[in-house]
Amino acid sequence: MDSEWKARTKLVHGGTRRSQWNEVSEAIFLTQGFVYETAEQAEARFLNAGPDEYIYARYGNPTVAMFEERIAALEGAEDAFATASGMAAVSGALTSMLRAGDHVVSARALFGSCLYVLEEILTRYGVEVTFVDGTDLEQWRDAIREDTTAVFFESVANPTLDVVDLQGVAEIAHAVGATVIVDNVFATPVFSRAIEQGADVVVYSATKHIDGQGRALGGVILGTRDFIRGTLEPYMKHTGGSMSPFTAWIMLKGLETISLRVRAQADSALAIAEALQGQAGLARVIYPGHPSHAQYDLVQRQMGKGGTVIALELEGGQPAAFRFLNALQIVLISNNLGDAKSIATHPATTTHQRLPDDQKVALGITPGLVRLSVGIEDTEDLVADIVQAVAAAQAGK
Ligand SMILES: *Cc1c(COP(=O)(O)O)cnc(C)c1O
Questions:
Q1: Considering the chain, what percentage of its residues have pLDDT values greater than 90?
Q2: Structure pTM?
Q3: Whose CA is nearest to atom 7 of ligand 1?
Q4: What are the angstrom distances between the C-alpha of 219 and each of 117, 157, 206, 349, 383?
Q5: How far is Cα 27 from Cα 53, in angstroms, rounded to an integer?
Q6: Is the minimum distance from the CB of 160 to ligand 1 under 6 angstroms?
Q7: CA distance linking residue 218 with residue 84, whole number of Å
Q8: Does the Cβ of 92 fall within 6 Å of ligand 1?
Q9: pLDDT tens, 175-222?
């Protein structure tokens, strides 16, 4: 593959391997294993498998390898490992490199399952975790110690859309030799420059924008070849969180169109955020790509665009938020994001239900907050749908 190719060319052609049939569309190698010509070849392959020499689908598979190579090329990472879900990627990235006695600093504003891994699971195995307000570099500076092994954060937090200064945190972490692990879902692979900005390990839930059509769970971990093949692969291949070949095929096809979809979604999200400014019934409209966002300059520097998700705070708390959701005609009530279909979520009662009320308040997950993942429908239709639902929420008081 030509490393000089621009992103959209890499997304269509990167990582392609053709069989003897020279198929146009990538083949699905739906096989758990591979046949060896001789016993000696089997022995040699178990001893040291070369590139494109496969043993067992839990270790690697040609369709999965195509996906890994394509996303690594886009992200500018040396290598990648595909996983069964985004959480297999998050937990694998952390657990593969940590041991009892290690110290991790993490942003507190996290997707519920990420918080569970850090707060409940890693600590059970003797890893010390310090939580900070990810947007405050002073707190990172105070919490990171000489013996800190890793830092973890969502570059844009779910669902409050606070943005972490990736370059700033990476500088503080690298000064003590800590590994910077970034959950980059909300930034999306299209707007990410995470590796160039100092991330050592980048994690995506491929379930979100990479599939982008709500079909399959998946995840991917990107980093240096040393980290991916030396630290991560032995952990993943023995603990079993590998991606299936069928899922990898879906994700490969997702990558072909991700740039077109995500750019259209981000343009729509900005238009919706603009249309909703000053709308009666809305206490807040949070969109990282709108100048009203507290970290607008950082967003422009770090991502260039604001991504595909907006957060709305309805006046009137949970009853108003529920009336809003129930009045939507086009936007679906569900909990995925990055999908071609627009989706609205009430985090306080669904994705972040498990959090105690004081933590919800501290993280800005208020009863009136609705997360809106903007799809690829017509922008005017979406604006009209959202505006009428806000009005209905108001009228129902
Ligand atoms: C969805 C999500 C995950 C988990 O991904 P799954 O594919 O659902 O396992 C992790 N982090 C963030 C920020 C997410 O949005």
A1: 93
A2: 0.96
A3: 86
A4: 16, 18, 5, 25, 31
A5: 17
A6: no
A7: 5
A8: no
A9: 999 999 999 999 999 999 999 999 999 999 999 999 999 999 999 999
Cα 179 to middle of ligand 1, angstroms: 21
78 Cα–ligand 1 center, Å: 23
159 Cβ inside 6 Å of ligand 1: no
Number of structural domains the chain divides into: 2
Band (392; pLDDT cuts 50, 70, 90): very high
CA-nearest residue for atom 6, ligand 1, is 86
- Beta-carbon neighbour count of residue 212 at 10 Å? 29
Q: Is 158 in the pocket of ligand 1 (CB under 6 A)?
A: yes
Residue ending a domain, among 219, 234, 254, is 254
Q: Whose CA is nearest to atom 15 of ligand 1?
A: 185
> Is the distance from the beta carbon of residue 275 to the nearest atom of ligand 1 less than 6 Å?
no
Q: Is there a single domain that holds both residue 274 and residue 390? A: yes
Closest CA to 203 of 94, 73, 58: 94
Q: pLDDT tens for residues 291-323?
A: 999 999 999 999 999 999 999 999 999 999 999
For the Cβ of 114 lying below 6 angstroms from any atom of ligand 1, the answer is yes
Give yes or no for residue 3 having a pLDDT over 80: no
Task: Specify the 3-state DSSP secondary structure of 255.
Answer: helix
pLDDT digits (tens, 9 = 90+) for 265-294: 999 999 999 999 999 999 999 999 999 999
373 C-beta closer than 6 A to ligand 1: no
Question: Does residue 272 share a domain with residue 242?
Answer: no
Q: Which domain holds residue 340?
A: 259-395
* 103-107 and 309-314 beta bridge pairing: unpaired
Does one domain contain both 109 and 45? yes
Is the beta carbon of 211 within 6 A of some atom in ligand 1? no
Helix (H, G, I), strand (E, B) or coil at 143: helix
Which ligand 1 atom sits nearest the alpha carbon of residue 90? 10
Q: What is the pLDDT of residue 1?
A: 57
- Residue 291: is the preceding peptide bond cis (ω within 30°)? no
In a shared domain, residues 321 and 241: no
**CB distance 111 to ligand 1 below 6 Å:** yes
Q: Stretch 366-370: mean pLDDT, rounded?
A: 97
